[in-house]
Amino acid sequence: MPDSEWPDPARPGVPLHPERDGWHWLQSRQRAEAPRPARWHARPAPNPGGWDEPWLTPKHVAWADHYLGPCLTPEDVAALQDGARRAETRAMIKAADMLDLTVSEIRSATGELQPGVLRAVRAVLAWTQNTIRSKAGEPPAGS
């Protein structure tokens, strides 16, 4: 068993953050089956804690299972989603800023755009940028 798949190679069979109760993903080494959650019960030091079933010792789990990591809590999922939304918003703002630059480049490369088309493109661009910024909790452009 490669000890490196456990968070602390010196303590195979003990999950990440053993001082906390929680669920962790394990996968059988012997059987081709889907990962399964297993509950870890923290205990006061110096005891390492233990898995849900008394016969599931850290030594047995290290031998029988691959450790995949902690199960995410609803708070963990919300934080990940929030981070992804913020990253997506930053990417959209950058794309909108690039679109503004592209309009300027088109104008300088081809001469003057028809005023109505340019006003429409600028209006759509401003609306897009302000919508993106408001979703990110930022003030509208120019304020």
Descriptive report:
By secondary structure, the protein is an alpha+beta fold. Helix 2 (74-110) packs antiparallel against helix 3. The longest helix is centred in the middle third of the chain and has 37 residues, at 74-110. The N and C termini lie far apart (60 Å). A hairpin with a 7-residue loop joins strand 1 (22-28) and strand 2 (36-41). It is 45% helix and 15% strand. A 4-stranded antiparallel sheet has the order 3-2-1-4, covered by helices on one side. It contains 3 helices and 4 strands.
Summarize the structure.
By secondary structure, this protein is of the alpha+beta class. It has three helices and four strands, in the order βββαβαα.
How would the blueprint of this fold be written?
Elements: E1 22-28, E2 36-41, E3 50-51, H1 58-64, E4 65-70, H2 74-110, H3 115-135
Antiparallel strand pairs: 1-2, 1-4, 2-3
**Rg:** 27 Å
Low-confidence stretches: none
Specify the number of helices: 3
Determine the fraction of residues in helical runs and give it as a percent range.
Answer: 40-55%
Q: What's the total count of β strands?
A: 4
- Spatial shape: elongated
Question: pLDDT average, as an integer?
Answer: 79
